[in-house]
Amino acid sequence: MRSKLLVWLSLPLLSLWFAGAVVAFFMAINFTNVAYDRALFDSARSLAEQVRVVDGRTVLGLPSSVVRLLLSDESDIVYFQVVGRDGRLVSGEADLPRPPAGGRIGKPILHDGKLRGEKLRIASLYVIPLGGANGSAVLVQVAETLNKRHVLAEEILTGMLAPQLALIALALLIVWFGVGRGLGPLQKVRHEIASRSHRDLSPLAESNSPEEVQTLIHAINELMGRLDQALGAQQRFIADAAHQFRTPLAGLKAQTDLALRQTDPVQQRHALEQLSASAGRTVRLINQMLALARVEPGADKSLELQVLELDALARESAMEWVPQALKKEIDLGYEGPGEAVSIRGEALRLRMLLDNLIDNALRYCPGGSSVTVKVGVEAGGAVLVVEDSGPGIPPEEQDKVFQRFYRVLGSEAEGSGLGLAIVQEIVHLHGAQVEIATPAAGRGTEVRVKFPRF
């Protein structure tokens, strides 16, 4: 994070520095040209003052060697040229480039040129020499190479850009240490989490941390709390499952040993029938546990709610359980509103919900009882009710039966204690509500599932 922040800060700063360098370069070139052009023009004017007309001829009042000595420079090569009014060379360098056309007398002309492949800066001046007639102007030029101009421009550029670059580096260094100090609390949190055991889900200390970090720590603590609850529930589920499997597996082992000891075919058949019944109960317990695992939150993220007709689904489920009801001599019926009742849900899980409710009612009701599956519409949404006339559930235990492996004391029917836990998970997945009550007749059990308004 600190490296990324440093990169994002350095890119615009360096871009600005580069743009400033370009501007500073042109400013330095302009400054050096202005300074040295003035000196170059002064040399041209001084040289022009030495030009005279003697006996009709234009002459330079100083020898060329003296002029070169006066114009000598430590850094650059200096050239001069004096051209008469007739265009003939009076003195100096013959190949020096001429100025652009249109020059006026007494007005300096500054221009660039080349001599033998080397760039020059040239100051040109048209003057009327001493003793000359009007209109008899001569051209005086002084030129120099660009070495000292480049040196001065580089010195100005370096003097401007080096401090800026140093300030940028200092700013980035300060940001580096500042961000590192600011991230100190996060590093502390990282170290504390890394040093913990995978079993330690206790909350992190939120005190002595910046407000922004406290928000992060609070979110981590909430996540740890949820993980602790989920892992606790998982551990309890595993412990309960191990306890529930211990009894049927021990029974299977005992019945298997008994069947092996029997020599009488009748007794042996009876022992095998008991063994088959125990195996069936164990298989049902395993299936119920697998069903519960599939409907737990987060176990399956493929839940896709679709528009379903709850009345048709409930009627079909009730019809499938009719043979089982007839076997136990229980009157299983269905009551609907006579019109379609639509909800948003998943057919497979709703079918599982109905199967568990009807199975529970048939399992715990004695022969001669009645079980009724009802579908209706109330204010706020659709309602599914499974009502039976069985022994019922005491009011103080009606909330407990949704716990895993919980069974009402005194119940003689065989069961896993997972049916209503599965129902509750499916209800939660659909955003619905489930409650247990005693029917108006005062006997039996009424399980009511209320779905949200469609």
Can you tag this structure with a few keywords?
454 residues, Beta-Lactamase, 14 strands, five-stranded antiparallel beta sheet, Heat Shock Protein 90, 10 helices, five-stranded mixed beta sheet, Helix Hairpins, 18% strand, alpha+beta
Write the CATH fold name of the largest domain.
Beta-Lactamase
Strand order of the largest sheet: 4-3-7-6-5
Could you describe the largest sheet, including whether it forms a barrel?
A: 5 strands, antiparallel
Described by the principal axes of the CA atoms, the overall outline is rod-shaped
Q: What is the second-level CATH architecture of the largest domain? A: 2-Layer Sandwich
Radius of gyration: 52 Å
Number of domains: 3
> What proportion strand?
15-25%
Residue share in helices? 40-55%
What's the CATH class of the largest domain, please? Alpha Beta
Separation, N- and C-terminal Cα atoms: 47 Å
Structural class designation:
alpha+beta
Low-confidence stretches: none
**What is the N-to-C order of secondary-structure elements (H for helix, E for strand)?**
HEEHEEEEEHHHHEHHEEHEEHEE
Overall average residue pLDDT: 82
Task: Please describe the topology of this protein.
Blueprint: H1 2-48, E1 51-54, E2 57-60, H2 64-70, E3 78-83, E4 89-92, E5 109-115, E6 118-127, E7 138-144, H3 147-182, H4 184-194, H5 211-261, H6 265-295, E8 306-309, H7 310-320, H8 322-327, E9 331-335, E10 342-345, H9 347-364, E11 370-378, E12 381-388, H10 419-429, E13 433-437, E14 445-450
Parallel strand pairs: 9-11
Antiparallel strand pairs: 1-2, 3-4, 3-7, 5-6, 6-7, 8-10, 11-12, 12-14, 13-14
Main location: membrane
Pfam family, one: 2CSK_N
GO molecular function: phosphorelay sensor kinase activity
